[in-house]
């Protein structure tokens, strides 16, 4: 036989796992169902999930790490005060790293506002920051003269580019899918608890039993024996 296509196998696997989870949930007594609902509601009251909090921490790390690299670059190239005045006050797009620092500030403000304050469940904000970061860094690398200024001409653009795309991957493949899965579990548990509440007093294992097998065959054999013994007694 030809093996099943991968799509059919994935569909069968997904349906089997969903049926298994439903069986597990309906096998739990109402007390356990209420405990699970309270645990999910407790997570909602916290306001932000653990995986989303980790994402916000990584966004903060992005800003702090780029800031640290920029300060090191200022200190290496002739002192912080002189270099800061040269890069900020006398800003030059072709030789300054100040705009890369501002780009990290832009990512931090947009992502924290969108996913920590507003708690969005969509990818448009991270798509905006990643697109702006990628376009700006590519243009700056092509047009500027950063590569002639030492190692930081390579390090800062590359680090900013990598961090922006790691944030995109983490949100799209970790934060949003995990939160959607937890929401679906909550809906399933609530549905199971509502069905259990419709049954008065709940159901125990003793209420589900199979009736004993009838002994019709043995009764017929006893009657046949009695019918065969009667003529013998008459003789």
UniProtKB/TrEMBL annotation:
Compartments where found: Late endosome membrane
TM region(s), chain numbering: 55-76, 96-116, 123-143, 149-166
Keyword Transmembrane helix part of the UniProt annotation: yes
Gene Ontology biological process terms, A to Z: cholesterol transport; vesicle tethering to endoplasmic reticulum
Homology family: Belongs to the STARD3 family.
UniProt region (Disordered), positions on chain: 200-235
Molecular function in Gene Ontology: cholesterol binding; protein homodimerization activity
Taxonomic lineage of the native organism: Eukaryota, Metazoa, Chordata, Craniata, Vertebrata
Biased composition (Basic and acidic residues): 223-235
The keyword Ribosomal protein belongs to this UniProt entry's keyword annotation: no
Bilayer topology annotation: Multi-pass membrane protein
GO cellular component terms given for this protein: endoplasmic reticulum membrane; endoplasmic reticulum-endosome membrane contact site; late endosome membrane; lysosomal membrane
Protein name: STARD3 N-terminal like
Residue intervals of the MENTAL domain: 48-218
Keyword annotations of the record: Membrane, Transmembrane, Transmembrane helix
């Amino acid at each position: 036989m030809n093996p099943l296509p991968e799509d059919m196998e994935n569909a069968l696997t997904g349906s089997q796992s969903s049926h298994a989870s439903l069986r597990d949930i309906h096998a739990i007594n109402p007390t356990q169902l209420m405990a699970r609902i309270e645990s999910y509601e407790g997570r909602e009251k916290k306001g932000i999930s653990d995986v989303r909090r980790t994402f916000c921490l990584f966004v903060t790390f992005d800003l702090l790490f780029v800031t640290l690299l920029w300060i090191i670059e200022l200190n290496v190239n002739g002192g912080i005060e002189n270099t800061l005045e040269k890069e900020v006050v006398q800003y030059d797009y072709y030789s300054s790293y100040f705009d890369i620092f501002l780009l990290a500030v832009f990512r931090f403000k947009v992502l924290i506002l969108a996913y920590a304050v507003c708690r969005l469940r969509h990818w448009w904000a991270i798509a905006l920051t990643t697109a702006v970061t990628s376009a700006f860094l590519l243009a700056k690398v092509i047009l500027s003269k950063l590569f002639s200024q030492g190692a930081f001409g390579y390090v800062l653009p590359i680090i900013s580019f990598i961090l922006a795309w790691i944030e995109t991957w983490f949100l799209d493949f970790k934060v949003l899918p995990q939160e959607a899965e937890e929401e679906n579990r909550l809906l399933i548990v609530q549905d199971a608890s509502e069905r259990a509440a419709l049954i008065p007093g709940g159901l125990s294992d003793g209420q589900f039993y199979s009736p004993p097998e009838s002994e019709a065959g043995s009764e017929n054999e006893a009657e046949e024996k009695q019918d065969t013994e009667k003529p013998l007694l008459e003789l």
